[in-house]
Design a protein that fits this description.
The protein has 233 residues and is of the alpha/beta class. The chain is built from 6 helices and 11 strands. The chain has 2 domains: 194 residues, Alpha-Beta Complex (Spore Coat Polysaccharide Biosynthesis Protein SpsA, Chain A); 35 residues, no CATH class. The chain starts with a strand and ends with a helix.
């Protein structure tokens, strides 16, 4: 059964200017995700979507199979990402003529993942029978223990309450930070109703050191440091 990988990246970036094409240890940031997708040997098609012709050209050079020009209305600062993912998926299916049961979306700004993380998330989807799988790392703060939210009157309290008071963080339900690295969906339910969360959504756990999303210059410096350490190992 055919598997499709979508990778979506806008040309503009407010947090880190030009981050998707910025050099990261000898290759553009976007090239890391393409290489990881290729390394898994899972995908018949790797489709790269962008509103930027320069990024599309760079993606093809880095090994993407299909370049999908994203409509302008899906590339604004306020545009949600799911419509762009769906557009890229539909274009990949139309151009290849292949029916895919499962597809994976990789976020360009999460280059610390391993190919094994991708295959692990796909395996979890297959084994669980769920409609989709997201990835995340163990949360540093728990909404049941030490994560508070501010009420409209200015007071604060725990974000979530339990049936009985939790006095040790270890006793709280496990919570995760979404790392926006890997999303795995079954194609049919996604096309019918694109969503990140369904009633049966599962989470594939990744360690903190592979869960940094580049959203600032500090993030970029940290990702570069961690990648250099990995390459030296």
């Amino acid at each position: 059964m055919s598997l499709i990988c979508t990778i979506c990246a806008r040309g503009g970036s407010k947090g880190v200017v030009g981050k998707n094409s910025r050099d990261l240890i000898g290759r553009p940031v976007l090239a890391w995700s393409i290489a990881q997708a290729r390394e898994t040997a899972l995908f018949d098609t790797i489709a790269f979507s962008s509103d930027s012709d320069a990024l599309l050209e760079a993606a093809l050079k880095a090994g993407a199979d299909i370049a999908v020009k994203r409509p302008d209305e899906m590339a604004t600062d306020t545009a949600p990402k799911l419509p762009a993912i769906r557009h890229c998926l539909e274009q990949a299916i139309a151009r290849t003529g292949k029916t895919a049961e499962i597809f994976v979306d990789l976020d360009v700004t999460s280059p610390l993942r391993l190919a094994s993380d991708i295959t692990g998330a796909v395996d979890l989807l297959r084994q669980s029978g769920a409609r989709n799988v997201i990835t995340g790392a163990p949360a540093r703060r728990s909404p049941y223990f030490n994560l508070v939210e501010q009420r409209t009157d200015g007071s604060v309290g725990l974000s979530k309450s339990a049936d009985s008071p939790i006095v040790r963080r270890q006793d709280a339900p496990r919570c995760f930070d979404m790392n926006a690295s890997i999303y795995v969906w079954r194609v049919e339910p996604f096309l019918q109703h694109p969503a990140v969360f369904y009633p049966d959504t599962r989470l594939f756990e990744m360690p903190e050191e592979r869960s940094v999303d580049i959203d600032s210059d500090l993030d970029f410096a940290l990702v570069e440091l961690l990648l250099r350490q990995r390459l030296k190992a």
